[in-house]
Amino acid sequence: xxxxxxxxxxxxxxxxxxxxxxxxxxxxxxxxxxxxxxxxxxxxxxxxxxxxxxxxxxxxxxxxxxxxxxxxxxxxxxxxxxxxxxxxxxxxxxxxxxxxxxxxxxxxxxxxxxxxxxxxxxxxxxxxxxxxxxxxxxxxxxxxxxxxxxxxxxxxxxxxxxxxxxxxxxxxxxxxxxxxxxxxxxxxxxxxxxxxxxxxxxxxxxxxxxxxxxxxxxxxxxxxxxxxxxxx
Length: 232
Ligand code: CA
Prior knowledge:
Elements: E1 9-13, H1 17-29, E2 33-37, H2 40-50, E3 54-58, H3 66-76, E4 81-85, H4 90-98, E5 103-106, H5 111-132, E6 137-141, E7 144-147, E8 152-155, E9 158-161, H6 164-175, E10 181-182, H7 183-191, H8 199-213, E11 222-224, E12 228-230
Parallel strand pairs: 1-2, 1-3, 3-4, 4-5
Antiparallel strand pairs: 6-7, 7-8, 8-9, 10-12, 11-12
Bound molecules: calcium ion.
Calcium ion binds near residues 15, 58 and 61.
């Protein structure tokens, strides 16, 4: 076993050793670190001790029910859980999801399917984290910034209130500094496809926005002649 710390750890609680080994082998080959445990109670303790990134959990365990393991683990910390079961019983599926299982795989399974589901679970987590990492402010110049949470602009410490469309316009441009947006593109992105306005409305909104934030010379929101607008 290498000591590459960047590997994600998948914990497997499964009493059928052959299945646990197959999963470990397949996941390690894909670059994951795995830990396997064959009993529920021991599994809970080891999951708590090792804090893995994901749990693959068999429902039918010799000592306690997998659902109880799921409940217990989920009540202690945030971890995605993929449940394995020999039963295709819909009742179990519903129960599993009720207790916080994130995904569900019915035995017999193709191991590649499990690997794919594990990867999908990690992708979802990355996406959520990515969204949370959004900066709460985007600097426009020395004295002005967009307050993303408040959907407003702050200039010299003073709040400038924006309409929803004005905020979306300035947020889009500020998030993509250096990128030129045509009027059509701004219409699509800010107003969506069901707009009943024409591209001149974009100019009117930009004009109003500039006025509000005191950008009278178009230094913050730049006009790219014949094309559209951008921020640098
Ligand atoms: Ca079992």
